[in-house]
Design goal:
two-stranded parallel ribbon; Leu-rich_rpt; Leucine-rich repeat, LRR (right-handed beta-alpha superhelix); globular; mainly beta; LRR_dom_sf; SLRP; signal; leucine-rich repeat; 8-stranded mixed sheet; 1 helix
Length: 164
C-alpha cells in the first residue's frame, strides 16, 4: 500500500506504469505506449509488450539474430532501439509492418553488412544510428526506398570504404 499514492500521482499526470512477465516496463501516456525491455538478457523479441507500443527499448540484450517478421505485432512502432544487442544478422523481412517507424538505433552491434532493401518497409524512417557497427559495406539498395531518411549516424566507415 505504500506505492498507492505514487501510482495515483502517475495516473493523474497521465502515466500508467506496469511490469510485464518478462520484466519489461510499460509506461502509458496520452500519445505513447513505451515498452522498456533493456538489459533483461533477452535472446528474442518479447511478445508480451502491448501491440500498440510506440517506443520499444531493447538495448543491452543478447538478441544476435533479428528473425523475419520479428516486429509483426508492433504496427504502431515509431522508435526502436536495438543498441548493444550483439546483433550479427537481420533477416530481410524483419522490419515488415513497421511503416510508422521514425527512428532506429542499431548502435554497437557486430554486423558485417545489411541485406539489400532491409530498410524498404521503413518508409517514414528519419533517423538511423549505426555507429560502432562492424560493417564491411553499406549496400546502396539498403537506402534506396527510405525517402524520409534525414540523419544517418555512423562514427566509423565501412572497412572497405564502400558506402553506396
Amino acid at each position: 500500500m505504500i506505492f498507492c499514492p505514487f501510482l495515483l500521482f502517475l495516473w493523474i499526470i497521465g502515466i500508467s506504469p506496469c511490469v510485464l512477465p518478462n520484466h519489461c516496463d510499460v509506461a502509458l501516456t496520452k500519445e505513447d505506449v513505451r515498452c522498456n525491455c533493456s538489459s533483461k538478457a533477452l535472446t528474442h523479441i518479447p511478445t508480451d509488450c502491448p501491440s500498440n507500443t510506440t517506443d520499444l527499448e531493447l538495448s543491452d540484450n543478447n538478441l544476435e539474430i533479428i528473425s523475419k517478421k520479428a516486429f509483426t505485432k508492433f504496427t504502431q512502432l515509431r522508435y526502436l532501439f536495438l543498441s548493444n544487442c550483439h546483433v550479427t544478422s537481420i533477416d530481410q523481412s524483419a522490419f515488415d509492418n513497421l511503416t510508422h517507424l521514425k527512428e532506429l538505433s542499431l548502435l554497437n552491434n557486430p554486423m558485417k553488412t545489411f541485406v539489400g532493401n532491409i530498410f524498404a518497409p521503413l518508409g517514414k524512417l528519419q533517423v538511423l544510428h549505426i555507429s560502432y557497427d562492424l560493417l564491411s559495406k553499406y549496400p546502396g539498395e539498403s537506402w534506396s526506398d527510405v525517402l524520409h531518411l534525414t540523419n544517418v549516424f555512423t562514427c566509423s566507415e565501412p572497412s572497405n570504404g564502400l558506402f553506396a
